[in-house]
Structure formats: C-alpha cells, structure tokens
Amino acid sequence: MASSKSFLNKFDMKIIYGIIAVLIIAFGYSKTIPKEFACVYGPFKDKDGIYRSDKLAYAILKVDKFWKRMTFYPVEPRVGKHDGIKMGPYPYQRTKRGDHYATKPFGQRKLTDEEKQLKKRSYESYYWTFRGADETKLKMWLSRNKNFKGGYELQIATSPPRGTRLQDDEKLLEEYTCYPPRVKKKKYFKKQKKYDL
After folding, report:
1. Can you list the pairs that 86-91 forms with residues at least 24 positions away whose Cβ atoms lie under 8 Å?
2. Beta-sheet strands, E only, within the chain
3. Beta strand 138-143 with 51-52: parallel, antiparallel or unpaired?
4. Concatenated DSSP letters for 99-110?
5. pLDDT (tens digit, 9 = 90+) per residue, 84-137?
6. Residues 103-116: pLDDT tens digits?
7. C-alpha angle 170/54/100, rounded to 5°?
8. Which residues face 163 on adjacent strands?
9. Shortest CA distance to 156 belongs to which of 105, 82, 97?
10. Could you give phi then psi for residue 148, rounded to 5 degrees?
11. Could you state, in order of their start, the residue ranges of all structural domains in the chain?
C-alpha cells in the first residue's frame, strides 16, 4: 500500500510540474511573440499644404522585442491572394535618448515580378524609388511614445555614410502612423498595455 501511494504521489507531482511548465512556456510565449501594428501612410502634406493621413490601414509593422527585429510590410499580405511586400526582418536597438527604436542601415532588395504587380508602378524594381535607390542604405525609426491619436510614428529614411551629403532627388523620407489592433472597449486598456513599446 505504501509503495502504491508513493507511486501516486510521484505521478501527481509529475502532472503538477508538467502543468506549471506549460503555463510558464505559454506566459513566456505571450510576452515574446512579435507585436503587430496596422499602419497608415502619413502625416503628409497635400496640395493645399494641409497635413493629412490615409484613413485605411494597408501596411503592417511587426516588432519582435525578444530577438530585437523589426519587419515592415508596405503592402499587407492577403490570405489566399498574395503575400504582400515584405521588408526585413531588420535588427534594431534603442536610441541613446531611449525614445526611439532604430534599425541598422539596410539596402533595398529588388522586387519580384509578383511584388511589382502589387505596386501602382509595376515597372519599378524597388518599392521606394529615388536616385541611387539600388545603393543608398535606408533606416527605420520607430517612436516609443504614442502621438495624440494613440499611434506610434514610423519613419523610413535614407541613411548615407557619415560625411556624405545627398541631393534632394537622392533622399527618401516616408512617414507612417502605426496603431495597435482594434479591440472591444472592455478589453481596450488591457490590450493596449500589451502594445506599449
């Protein structure tokens, strides 16, 4: 009897340890999975000089805080239709002031034929076109502080070597505003906290 009880106790402890291990893994995974943001183009100046932003989100930003990687989809993937246009993942680090994440400089890759069809100008080889686009490095800057609309500002800009001056047609500055996914009001504050950067 004593031996059977000790066997059951050992078996019960294994189950308890197993449940604890699963909970720890699940908790850790929830904290380390990449955070996904819906991004709109802007703010940008229209013809009248007024700052505007697109109303519909068509781009996606994924921030992997565990591996310190940032992936940007200027064209959102559509399940069953296309894979979108993917930029990255690129390693990033926090700036000295601590208010931004900045990637290391990266070069643009040429778009595939399928990706070119997703652009309005399908004859262009790169997503962002400017003089020297095949050689000039880019950099992504992501603000860690929300703006007055509750979004994070993302900038993609040319990043030439120190001491190099670019002409206006060799420069790029694209601005997006990225928002956490929309949720029901009851879960809003709980969900939004998970998307703090």
Report:
1. 87/127, 89/62, 89/64, 90/140
2. 35-41, 44-45, 51-52, 59-64, 69-75, 85-94, 100-103, 138-143, 152-158, 173-179
3. unpaired
4. SEEEEPPBPPPP
5. 999 999 999 999 888 899 999 999 999 998 898 888 777 888 999 899 888 899
6. 999 999 999 988 98
7. 60
8. none
9. 105
10. -70, -15
11. 1-32, 33-194
